[in-house]
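Predict structure. Chain length: 299.
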Amino acid sequence: MKHSPDEPAHDVSEVPAYPHVFEPIRIGAMSLRNRVMLPPHASAIGNLWGSQADANRNIAYWESRAKAGVAWIDGVAGRVRNRLVPGFEPHGYGAETTGFYRLPFFVERVQQMVAAIHAAGATVTSQLTVIGGNPHTPSRQLSAPLYNSRPHVLRRDEIAWYVEEYRFSARQARRAGLDGIELHLNHDDLLEWFLSPLTNHREDEFGGSLENRARFAVQVLTAVREEIGTDMTLGVRFNLREEMPGAMTPPRGSPSRSTSKAPASSTSCTLSSARPGGIRATSNRSTTPRRSGPIWPVI
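Prediction complete.
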């Protein structure tokens, strides 16, 4: 574009793309030195739940990111104990039926990780994850030599069991000294399957309306908050735009298209996007919805 002689040219190179990225911010109980957050991912370097040598390598990986300047590391992607029957989970994702939070050395290992990351000036949080749609019995129809199984509808007593398991896991996270917890409601997590009308076809108080579909997640949120108090940050990771007929899509003009107005001291909310070909939590079925979109208000 040409400018007139009297009009000064504007040098766009002088305008930072993200002017606030290195400014401090407070999220719940966490004071962050900047706004750079490292989300959970598989580092493939060591194993926090393996031998001590493996754990040291894994901790060193996260520590190096904190030393590089990251302010927030959501590095403990912890599985909550599952009711899965052993032997019917061939893809291995979420097959740790004991649950990471139930491991006898969970607190000790995470304390080591927390100490290293805190010493480098960053905060560290943990996810609470239960992969949805886990099978409990063989399927009547053979679908593949390695995947021939069928889930069942959770009973009310099983839902209550999960709520208490989330509560225990939150207690362990607090004991380990973590700065906060992120409740996982995406990537085919069990709570997301309840929340989505695409996968929740129940006809009781846990199905139908949004309020009913969110009931399980609200019960978990309540239990976790009761357990950790207000000096730990509690976050929720949503995927609520599934872009499929009958799935969740925020209506135009709804409050769901803006960020939550919930008090920062109570709960935070992060946006997650699962693009086609990205992270998958269950079998490679073409019917898995594509989930991405805006942040919904905190429930």
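Summary: The first strand starts at residue 25 and ends at 27.
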